[in-house]
Amino acid sequence: MKYFLILVIFIIISSLQLKSQSDTLVITLMDGQHEKIAVSQIQKIQFENIVGIEKEKLSVKGLLLKDNHPNPFREQTSIEFEIASYGTVEVLIYDNSGNQIQKLECSNCRAGKNTIQWNCTDKNNNRVQSGVYYYEVRFSDEIQFRKMIIIK
Fold first, then answer.
1. Are 122 and 129 in contact (CB under 8 A)?
2. How far, in Å, CA of 47 to CA of 40, rounded?
3. Which of 98, 10, 81 is nearest to 90 (CA)?
4. In 3D, which of 47, 36, 56 has the Cα closest to residue 10?
5. CA distance 115 to 78
6. Structural fold of domain 55-150
């Protein structure tokens, strides 16, 4: 989980244009306080004493993302989630370099448990290679991430 957090922060920082002094990284702490840091001033990001994150507590506005199964997998995997109300859910799949390779959508998802299947194909319907992939689930204005592994 620590490496996933580092990857997410690296992707965020990489996406910012470091040319401008006005770019800042805003960190919201558990007590609600905000820390603002100029991106140009960041030398190193280090996480210490991370034991784990309770996934059940990640849901803020009605999305509870569960781990995909099976994981690792060969042909396809099921991405499970629960939502508090009827709505549209998007699942974006990223390769290990952070490139979006697929978008799945449940436009009429019912409240409660739902599952979306991914068959290891990209946007062009080509089968993807073995490796580490990430999926992002979006519901309303909430976003959650998980990691998955394809094996041959």
1. no
2. 19
3. 81
4. 47
5. 6
6. Immunoglobulin-like (2.60.40)
CA 33 – CA 30 distance, rounded (Å): 7
Residues contacting 96, CB < 8 A, separation 6+: 131, 132, 133, 134
| C-alpha–C-alpha distance, residues 94 and 89, integer Å | 16
Over its length of 152 residues, how does the chain's per-residue pLDDT go in tens digits?
566 666 666 666 655 544 444 577 777 777 778 788 877 777 777 766 655 555 544 444 689 999 999 999 999 999 999 999 999 999 999 998 899 999 999 988 999 999 999 999 999 999 999 999 999 999 988 999 999 999 97
